[in-house]
Amino acid sequence: MTRTPVITLLKVVHYNSNLQKFTRKTLSSFSKTVLQRTASSSNMSLNEAKRIAAHRAVDEWVKTNTVIGIGSGSTVVFAVERLAERVQKEGLKVTCVPTSFQARQLIVENNLVLGDLDRNPKLAVAIDGADEVDRNMVLIKGGGGCLLQEKIVASCAEKLIIIADYTKNSEHLGEQYKKGIPIEVVPMAYVPIRERIAAKYGGELKLRMAVAKAGPCVTDNGNFILDWHFKQNCDCDWAKVNSELLQIPGVVETGLFVNMAAKAYFGMNDGSVKTQDK
């Protein structure tokens, strides 16, 4: 019987140990890569859903020699992208009225004609995103803090067109969007307004805090925002609720858009676009 030298056995054990470490390390790295790519693919899928909805709406509603409202938010980025493409390729002539500083920057950066409501009080169409759209075309907007100017621009347009991805489409408000209904308020009045709404309608109202600085979030108009986390499964008359909220002294505007949107475009995860009419 041939005996294997002890030193050879030690080398084999050392080799196998290193191989196992290498294998575990390689598999771990591979797993992380797969997870990262999966997450990236999922994010791309959501962005692609936003893109196809935005492009479809711009193609169907924007005509040459018109003035249009440009909303705020992540989905509107793709609408401006498509609008800039059409201006360059088709020679489309449009003037764009922004709903926020972000929208203004998008218009300028894409070399589109910047307009305002002073010179263009009537708009052919406004294209904007939404945080949630229910079965009756009632919207929650203002997650980005631009609800007042968004509603002003929308009210000046003949048609308000909503663009969103499939996660924003719900049967009832609050089903998908869990951050509440934004209510823009005068800073000195936010505490009595918060208590009054909670006492009458229930739920919880939270003062929205800034992300990049200490203190409350301040809107483009110098106001605060209360996010109203209303009771779930609320079968409310949202038009009535909106009207009552606006009668409270200190309430500037709400993120409830009732009887305003003419059509909504939802980019679906299968690459199709679902539409919903008023």
Plain-language structure description:
This protein has 278 residues and is α/β, with parallel strands linked by helices. It folds into two domains: 49-173 and 256-277, Rossmann fold, CATH 3.40.50.1360; 181-253, ACT domain (Alpha-Beta Plaits). The protein is 40% helix and 23% strand. It contains six helices and 14 strands. It has helices spanning 6-61, 74-90, 101-109, 147-155, 190-201, 238-246, and strands at 66-70, 94-98, 113-114, 123-128, 132-133, 139-140, 157-165, 181-185, 204-207, 224-229, 251-254, 256-257, 261-267, 273-277. A seven-stranded mixed β-sheet has the order 3-2-1-4-7-13-14, with helices on both faces. Strands 9-10-8-11 form a four-stranded antiparallel β-sheet. Helix 1 (6-61) crosses helix 2 (74-90). The chain is globular, with a radius of gyration of 26 Å. Residues 6-16 and 19-44 have low confidence and may be disordered. It comes from Bactrocera latifrons. GO terms for molecular function: ribose-5-phosphate isomerase activity. Pathway: Carbohydrate degradation; pentose phosphate pathway; D-ribose 5-phosphate from D-ribulose 5-phosphate (non-oxidative stage): step 1/1. Keywords: Isomerase. Pfam families: Rib_5-P_isom_A (PF06026).
Short description:
The protein has 2 domains: 49-173 and 256-277, Rossmann fold (3-Layer(aba) Sandwich); 181-253, ACT domain (Alpha-Beta Plaits, 2-Layer Sandwich), CATH 3.30.70. It contains 6 helices and 14 strands. It has helices spanning 6-61, 74-90, 101-109, 147-155, 190-201, 238-246, and strands spanning 66-70, 94-98, 113-114, 123-128, 132-133, 139-140, 157-165, 181-185, 204-207, 224-229, 251-254, 256-257, 261-267, 273-277.
